[in-house]
């Protein structure tokens, strides 16, 4: 399985090169908007777009042959997405140019890239650290995107095909419970408390409520200022959450690597419905109804794949109510779990117990010899009131 990773690299740009990059970025955006306005909206085929506009793009905007093709491709992609979402293509604000192997190349010996601009080919030195060097070494990237950031710096996002190591064969699992009190809790007892995160998010949510009220009343200029502020806040909250998720997922994957384990996660589809089964306050519903869990899981998946660690997804039913020692149903009160089996009587952190059940389920799913967990359940002679284990096979 090949994984495509995007490596973001800062470019060292001289003043004269900056002028050329600016001209290219601007021509690319203008060409995109012009083609979008001057061709029928229903044309989503890049070759068709090219046959309609190729000449015009080249003479009007001075783009090279391959950059003209990139314009058509980029617009075609945007139109396809817009069609799926049933809305028109928005005007392009610019700030980017897409490149393929004909107009972009990477040279490892001096860590440079060469890019086609409206004034010919230019070579740029990469301003990168050891992570980027490690990822780029020995690679033959075929695509990249030139980006201009808000602060005026230029970046090249290079797509690198990466063959991750084969997942190791292992029977050890780290279970991860994604909860709402703790963001994540592993079967090894590591946990990430959600308190600070919730505080930050509650703060933003209150601010949003105030601003939204103001944005619907007040004078015209107040309304506009509130809208601008809202937009800025949404970016800040999102970046904070992303940073937290990167840290958690990185740590989980590093732990799995160090202990030669695979990772077992709960199947998150429908988490919103499940978490919201009991009547809960509006605040709690807002906290769990977010893209944050989804993002965390995605981060775990891609970081694990990169490290050659398998991720197993298990059905989440009853994982929080089953005792991980004896597999009886226990009692959960808030953060505390108590096993009612007189022979066991385990007591402790409910999320830690949940994470351990997930790890057990992960081992059961991952093993070819079938659902041993179900056999154990029957061994207690207690009619199982639920199906904890995964179906046969
Ligand atoms: Zn027990």
Which features characterize this protein?
disordered C terminus, globular, alpha+beta, 21% strand, 2 domains, binds zinc ion, 393 residues, five-stranded mixed β-sheet
Main pleated sheet: 7 strands, antiparallel
By CATH, the architecture of the largest domain is named 2-Layer Sandwich
Number of strands: 15
CATH topology of the largest domain, which one?
Nucleotidyltransferase, domain 5
Total number of domains: 2
Estimate the mean pLDDT confidence. 84
Structural class given helices, strands, pairing?
alpha+beta
Q: Low-confidence stretches at least 5 residues in length (pLDDT < 50)? A: 374-393
For the largest sheet, list the strands in their spatial order. 2-6-7-1-5-4-3
Bound molecules: zinc ion
Rg (CA only): 26 Å
| Dominant shape | globular
> What is the CA–CA distance across the termini?
24 Å
Give the SSE string.
EHHHEEEEHEEEEEHHEHHHEEEEHH
Determine the number of helices (DSSP H or I, runs of at least 4 residues): 11
CATH class of the largest domain: Alpha Beta
Helix content: 40-55%
